[in-house]
Write a structure and sequence with these properties.
With 199 residues, the chain is α+β, with helices and mostly antiparallel strands. It has helices at 49-71, 92-99, 102-112, 182-188, and strands at residues 5-18, 21-37, 79-86, 119-124, 131-137, 148-152, 162-170.
């Protein structure tokens, strides 16, 4: 059993001026999406595991290969995330099922050498629904400069019986970042943050 992929879509943007000020380096965010047939569309299925186990690895491998090629290397990616949008004949659980499996996300984590979990969204909508991919620093979940969101849409997807599965990335955080990080806020409140990973 393999996922039936109707199309692959790439999104790529570079911001040169942000907040009326040139960026020191281009702020680049990008995503790759697979539009796949939803094997559970139009009916209730109790056990989703067979399709999840069959679809997760090839989708994770394919999208990871494409996003690394888009970025130039895994090292070039500083922030990362994932998303899925299920069509109207499906459940949000179907979107969740395809992206919330180690066999999907681990391809990407390993390729970029990440320590943080993958930020995510899973939603339902019609064709041209917004695809929102939240990003965070691949090694430091408290680094606010890399709290980002990629937004795009695909004019003809998802169809009612499809799921759009997405990986996203960025090569930098926001230009002109100046709101601090979680750790400084906690220090200001008197918390001990000598070990940021434990916060």
């Amino acid at each position: 059993m393999q996922p039936e992929i109707r199309k692959l879509v790439t999104y790529d943007e570079e911001v040169l001026i942000e907040g009326f000020r040139p960026a020191a380096e281009p702020w680049r965010m990008f995503a790759v999406a697979a539009v796949v047939r939803n094997p559970w569309a139009g009916r209730y299925v109790e056990d989703l595991k067979p399709e999840i186990m069959a679809f997760g690895p090839p989708l994770g491998a394919l999208l990871t290969e494409r996003i690394i090629a888009l970025a130039g290397s895994g090292d070039a990616i500083e922030a990362y995330g994932k998303a899925a949008v299920v069509g109207l004949d499906g459940e949000v659980e179907h979107a969740s099922g395809l992206i919330h499996t180690l066999r999907f996300g681990n391809h990407y984590r390993e390729a970029v050498g990440a320590k943080s979990y993958l930020a995510f969204t899973n939603t339902r909508g019609p064709a041209n629904a917004p695809v929102m991919v939240p990003l965070m620093d691949k090694n430091d979940a408290g680094r606010r400069s890399h709290y980002l969101t990629i937004q795009f849409s695909i004019a003809d997807a998802p169809r009612a019986d499809e799921i759009v599965v997405v990986l996203g990335g960025a090569t930098t955080g926001r230009p002109h970042h100046r709101i601090g990080d979680r750790y400084q806020d906690l220090k200001d409140l008197g918390h001990d943050v000598d070990n940021p990973a434990a916060v």
